[in-house]
Design brief:
Layout: E1 2-4, H1 12-17, E2 26-31, E3 36-43, E4 46-53, E5 59-64, E6 85-90, H2 109-122, E7 129-132, H3 135-140, H4 144-151, H5 155-171, H6 179-189, H7 195-205, E8 206-209, E9 212-215, H8 233-241, E10 247-254, H9 268-281, E11 285-293, H10 296-299, H11 302-313
Parallel strand pairs: 5-6, 5-7, 10-11
Antiparallel strand pairs: 1-7, 1-10, 2-3, 3-4, 4-6, 8-9
Helix pairs in contact: 6-7, 8-9
Amino acid sequence: MYLFTPALRLLCSRARRLGVYCQPPCDQRIRAMGLYSELKLPVPWGHIAAKAWGSPSDRPVLCLHAWLDNANSFDRLIPLLPRDFYYVAMDFGGHGLSSHYSPGVLYRHESFVSEVLRVTAALKWSRLSIMGHSFGGLVAGMEVENLLSYRRRRIEHMLQQDKAQAGRASKMPERVYSQDEILQRLVKTNTHVWEESGKILLQRGTSPVATGLVINRDRRLTLPEVHAEFISKERFVPFIKKLQAQVLLVKASQGTGDLRKENHDKKEPMAFITETLKSVLKERFQYVEVPGNHYVHINQPDHVAGVVSSFLTSKDRLPTKL
């Protein structure tokens, strides 16, 4: 889990190039239970859904969920954080309640980075903090131009993959689950998610139909060729050197490695990330380890809330300009 206050260097001209609709969010519906608002931000392929806690006049914090999760990932943590912030948790495209990408459009790392730029432009934020869990933390620290350069040599391969995705996804029948069946499927596939946490994620991750529940996320996200691809070690350092932010990394004691059981003991990637952040960012980097697993922020949010709260309210840390 990462907490960034990055300099994304977003200019109005770039926002226009990305096709951002710079207007106030529409479809805001205040819900009495949970005291949050639903946001629906228009984008060229539909909308990006988000939920917000607090007053828009307070200091903004953008919350980015992990791969295949949704904005509900922060439901149990945000109520424990300082109240004088405006927390917005977005659903990445193809996740939660956000629109799926159009046929022929690839789900790639740089696409999610550009979604962050679209959301911050639509909300007219010039300064913000970003709180990301797992994949969301990696997205928070990346820049679109670098990612596009990183991908340039693979464009033809990506286009070939996309043809395969379009055909295979269209042939995949939409499966209908019972409430218990889909919950057990989630906790079996993702062994770090407790049942109560799984129920929270599924509230936003599924929709009712006549015979049960269907999964909301785009089925293309689960194809083998579409995955949360991590940046190589060679590329990671240049990305980190571009960060102009104070960074807090909260590591769960049992959260290293892949979430699949066979990879739980693979600790090398996390060690490399931590050491790189320490050596490059120096005093701008804070590292804290808490008891729990990869989903400690939703399973046991009290283990994380104090650390995050202290970081957000630190007088030495100010959100940087976009």
